[in-house]
Amino acid sequence: MPEIEWSTSALGITVREMEFDAIAFSRQWVAAWNSHDVAAVLTHFHDEVLFTSPVAAAMYPETSGVIRGKSALRHYWSSALEQLPDLHFVVDDVYRGIDTVVINYRNQSGGLVNEVLRFGDDGLVIEGHGTYLESRAEGERLDIRP
User: Fold this and answer.
1) pLDDT range class, residue 20, cuts 50, 70, 90
2) How far, in whole angstroms, is CA 95 from its chain's centroid?
3) Global pTM value
């Protein structure tokens, strides 16, 4: 994946931005998941990926929700699919950052989820986080202010 590079000399750092079609990636991602094709999902992940999820923590408490490496991620996702044969995602929105894509979707239960994916220089996901909407009473609005 080509990158745009610029330097912020005052800070002495170089930032690289992905030239990347986040929408196209998200379409491939959701198609692979909805086909229950773990191998296709994993083609976008680095061998040394780090993935966190509260679902992983529930399924494998000994991991504390942290899955390390593509092989362990394959095992986790394959096991999850066995337990959730009706798994299906509908993407609501896609957000793109410098080296990050956030896929906002609803799962088979209608639950709102964000998949936060950080990409390495080789264009593969090096870090991912499954995040789930906090429960609140129906109609309750969050009023978070300083």
Assistant:
1) confident
2) 11
3) 0.83
Distance CA 33, CA 108 (A): 11
Alpha-carbon distance values, 94 to 28, 61, 104 (Å): 13, 30, 6
Which residue in 131, 137, 111, 118 sits closest to 53, CA to CA?
131
Sheet holding 112-119, edge to edge: 66-68, 45-52, 125-132, 112-119, 100-106, 90-96
Containing 24, the helix (H) or strand (E) segment is: helix 22-34
One-letter amino acid of 137:
A
Alpha-carbon distance of 14 to 99, in angstroms, equals 13
Rg of the chain taking only CA atoms, in angstroms: 17
CATH topology for 21-132 is Nuclear Transport Factor 2; Chain: A, (3.10.450)
Whether 48 contacts 41, CB under 8 Å: no
* Of the candidates 110, 120, 58, 114, the residue with the CA atom closest to the CA atom of residue 83: 58
DSSP state, residue 139: T
The DSSP bridge partners found for residue 62 are none
